[in-house]
Amino acid sequence: MADIIKKAVLPLSGGMDSATVLAIARDLGYTVHALSFDYGQRNRAELHCAARVASGQEAASHVTVRVDLSAFGGSALTADIPVPKGAGQPVGIPATYVPARNTVFLSLALAYAETLGTGDIFIGVNALDYSGYPDCRPEYIQAYETMANLAVKQAVEGKIRITIHTPLISMTKGRIVARGMELGVDYSLTLSCYDPVPDGRHCGRCAACGLRAKGFAEAGVPDPAPPPSL
C-alpha cells in the first residue's frame, strides 16, 4: 500500500521564522508547498531569500503571488514612512505593522491548500519574542481557523479539516534558532530585516534585526548572515 502524501502550504517570507517552520513541517513528514507574496513591500530582497530558502530546503513547489498592499499604504514596510530604529522605539503596535497582512496571506494560503486537497497550513507566527502585531496572537489564529472551516467547499463537505499549524507561537527566538539548527536550517540564506541596505545586508538597528540578534545570542551560536551595516 502506497504511503499517503501529507501536503501542507506555508507562507514563506525568507526570514528565519518561516525558514524554520519549513524545516519543522518537512521533519513532520509533510510535502511543503511554499507561498510567497510580492505585496508591494519596500524590502525586495526578502523575495530572493524566500526563493533560496525554498530551493535549499527542497520545497515541493514555490509560488509567488502578487497582491499590492502598497495601494493602501499605512505601513513603514509599504509606504514612505520611516522604519523605527535604535533605542527608544515607540511602545505598542509598531509602524511596521501592515494592515490585515496575515489575514490576506492566510486567505490566499487557504485557497491554495484547497486546490491541493489539503487542510494543513503552517505559518511562522510568534507571540513571545515578536513585534506586537495583533495578527500573530493565538486567539487570532484560533479565530481564523474556525472561520476557515466554515468558508471553503471541501471543509464544508467534510473532505478536509483546516488546521493552521503554528509551531513557533510560544517559542523564544533562542529556541527557534536552536530548533532550526537541529534540523539543519541554513540561516545564511535568510533575511530578518525591515530595512536592509542596498547590498542585501541587515541594517542591524530595526526591531527585526534586534530579535534576530537576540535569538542567535540566546542559542549561543553565531549568525551566519553577513555582518549588519551599522
Helix content: 25-40%
Q: What is the CATH level 1 assignment? A: Alpha Beta
CATH superfamily: HUPs
Q: How is the CATH topology named? A: Rossmann fold
Give the mean pLDDT: 94
Question: How much β-strand is present in the residues?
Answer: 5-15%
Distance between the termini: 57 Å
The low-confidence parts are none
Number of helices: 7
The secondary structure category is alpha/beta
Radius of gyration: 17 Å
**Largest sheet descriptor:** 3 strands, parallel
Describe it.
The structure is a single chain. This protein is of the alpha/beta class and 230 residues long. The protein has a single domain, classed as Rossmann fold (3-Layer(aba) Sandwich). Helix content is 35%, strand content 12%. It has helices at 16-27, 45-56, 101-116, 138-151, 153-156, 173-182, 207-219; strands at 6-11, 30-38, 61-66, 120-122, 163-165. The strands form 2 sheets. The chain has a 3-stranded parallel sheet, with helices on both faces. The chain starts with 5 loop residues before the first strand and ends in an 11-residue tail after the last helix. The model has no long low-confidence stretch (mean pLDDT 94).
